[in-house]
Amino acid sequence: MLRSLVGSEMCIRDRCTHCTFEMIAANGNTTICPVCLNTFVATRSSEEQVEEPLPRAVLPAADLRPTSAAPTQSIHESLDMPQCEVRSVSEARGCWTDFFSCDTFTPETTPLIPLLHVRGLDETGEAVWYSASVLDVAGITLEHEHEAQDNEAQVHWVKLSNSTDSSAARLVLRSDDVELILLLKDVHLEQLADQPLSLKTKVLRHRLMCNQIPASADMEPIRLELRREQMANDVQFFFLAMEPADFCKEIRYRLQNETDFFQDVGGVTREVYTEAAKQLFAEEEGLFTRVLDGAADGGYLRINTQHRSGYVSRELLERYTFAGMLLAKALMDGYTIPVPLATHLYSQIMQRPVGMQELKKLDFQLYNSFKWMLENDVTHVEETFAVAEAGPAGQLFERELCKEGSQLAVTELNKSKYVEMRVKLELVGKVEEQLKAFLNGVWSVIPEFVTMTQSLDEPELRQIWVGVLEIDVEQWFEATEYAPPCTAQDEVIRWFWTLVGGMSNDQRRRLLFFVTGSSCVPYEGFQGLCSTQGKIFPFSISTIPLDGNPGSWMLPRAHACFNRLDLPMYTSQEQLEENLVMILEPDFMGFGMDE
After folding, report:
1. CB 427 within 8 A of CB 354
2. What is the DSSP letter of 472?
3. Is 36 considered catalytic here?
């Protein structure tokens, strides 16, 4: 059963006393603004309308902050970069800024090792975080494996033979963390951008994991019950009631009439994120529209400009805030989500400047028009610093780019400023309120997003966040494992791969979704498929009997938490094809209680 928000206190809307950002808070409680980190007491004014209680329980307020992810070290203090030259702390943490002229970080020579943490076992066998700075990296040699094994995750515990800590002989650490530290021992922060994307991905995911409160912490996970047909609405209801620190906790989901909480070890969560995103980012939802942006598979998503700033409702802004929260939470949990954003949105999430190159990918015709103005004489061009736009009811109105812009003609002297203002209007100004809500959603879940991603460029971030949408059957085949006695030479297995090879990419993605809960492949490929908390579970196939008895399975079944497909031993390729087609139907998707 879910606990109510802040005991029995009333949930109200209040604005930050510093940046005026509107949020949900508990009346009379100290609240931290997710935008500028200002601390204030949320109070309800006498004239303010009290929020009507909703017919579903909301989440408990968190007593812990993300620093609780590291019992032996304050993660946030370690991840802060005092050497970085930033204009203010609030900007470093994700405050709304002028994206057109935003400064970028300029780190000094900063070793990466002290910024990282490694998972280990203490003397009692409890899992804890150690600061990587206690390790003598140059002298590390792995002695032998600890008795505790984690074969499913292909990760094991190892002892170290050397350390700057006098208790080195007792340090037992996770092998994947130690391997990452060894890879980074000669890398400084400012050099990370030049490293392979595979290494940068490991660093990002490791730092995100450091901010999570482990499942073994002395608290229960947050449990949310959802309806499949209302997935996005239900998740939004809960996410908007959560405090930033709640997103660092483990969240388990139960799908009404399908699964229970104990069954969510990764597959249910993956499907929740994928299905909620499918509903939220659908064209009929109207929040985002597709643009080409150099993509060959249908384009990328940008904020819908039909909802002009100044005419958007509070409910619509909450929807954009939730969109940012959903994407950020999926990234924090290590799951890919098939929502490819336009390049300029990634730039703005990372607080990078945007300009003509980003406009070129969105509107090539407008880009060429501005390019012509910059390269040619505009003396005879009749333009002013004002733009005609359509209002919410279709009526035309004039938007001035500057004070008395309708009276200011574009000339050779000011054309560069005109182009700059027009580009800013197209990329930011037309959707400024929606963009601000979306970015605040991302940053409220991952406050250190800007610093964590400063070594990545926009296409790299898209690869990590979205994964691969075009499925390569040969790579899929090579990465698949088989549960004995099943082998790749079995007749039903050969039929299966023949049919997969003849499918469209959309059908392959639906098959992958049926088995794993995700319709995209991780950036690392199929070998990067995982369960919960980063445990690697390769795609696997097993065969099950088909004898025609009432208790036998006729349709293929999937174990989404473990990325495993159970194939009945059909008697012909046609029989297999008939049943595969059935499970790929949209209405067929769902979990059985045996999952």
Report:
1. yes
2. -
3. no
What does 507-525 look like in DSSP terms, one character per residue? HHHHHHHHHHS-SSB-TT-
Q: What is the pLDDT of residues 51-66, one digit of tens each?
A: 333 333 323 323 222 3
* Residue type (1 letter), 549: N
> Tokens standing for 496?
């299966």
CA 239/CA 254 separation, integer angstroms: 15
Distance CA 532, CA 209 (A): 12
| DSSP H helix total and E strand total for the chain | 18, 19
Give the chain's length. Answer: 595
Task: Give the tokens for residue 542.
Answer: 């097993």
d(CA 207, CA 199): 12
First to last CA, the chain: 22
Q: Is 262 helix (H, G, I), strand (E, B) or coil?
A: helix
What residues contact 588, with CB distance under 8 A and at least 6 apart? 582
Question: Which residue bears the tokens 């409702």?
Answer: 313
Summarize pLDDT for 83-116 with one digit per residue, the tens: 222 222 222 222 222 333 333 334 456 777 777 7
pTM of the model: 0.73
Cα 299 to Cα 31, 74, 282, 287, 339, distances in angstroms: 40, 41, 14, 16, 11
To which residue do tokens 């942006």 refer? 293
Give kind and range of the element (H or E) at residue 387: strand 386-390
Residues with Cβ within 8 Å of 478's Cβ and at least 6 positions away in sequence, in order, are none
Distance (Å, rounded) from C-alpha 200 to C-alpha 208?
A: 12
Q: What string of DSSP letters covers 292-306?
A: -TT-SSS-EEEE-TT
Q: What is the dihedral of CA 27, 29, 30, 31, to 10 degrees?
A: -50
Between strands 564-568 and 557-559, the pairing is antiparallel
Q: Which residue has the tokens 């730092």?
A: 207
Helix, strand or coil for residue 19? Answer: coil
DSSP characters over 429-462: GGGHHHHHHHHHHHHHH-TTHHHHTTT--HHHHH
Of 87, 70, 103, 83, residue with least CA distance to 36:
87
Report how far apart, in Å, the C-alpha atoms of 343 and of each of 258, 289, 318, 325 are.
37, 14, 23, 19
Give me the chain's average pLDDT, please. 74
Confirm if 595 and 263 have CB atoms less than 8 A apart.
yes
C-alpha count within 13 angstroms, C-beta hemisphere, residue 130: 25
CB 520 within 8 A of CB 468: yes
Q: Mark residue 28 as left, alpha or beta (left: phi above 0; alpha: psi -120 to 50; beta: remaining).
A: left
Residue 203 burial (CB count, 10 A):
21
Rounded (10°) angle between helices 197-210 and 175-184:
130
The Cα–Cα gap between 42 and 11 comes to: 10
Q: Which class for 569: exposed (0-12), middle (13-18), buried (19 or more C-beta within 10 A)?
A: middle
Other CB atoms within 10 Å distance of the CB of residue 574: 10
Query: 375 pLDDT exceeds 80?
Result: yes
Which of the residues 16, 33, 486, 561 is marked catalytic? Answer: 561
Instruction: Provide the pLDDT for residue 29.
Output: 53
Neighbours of 367 (CB within 10 A): 18
Q: Are 467 and 523 in contact, with CB atoms under 8 Å apart?
A: yes
Residue 154 — pLDDT band, cuts 50, 70, 90?
low
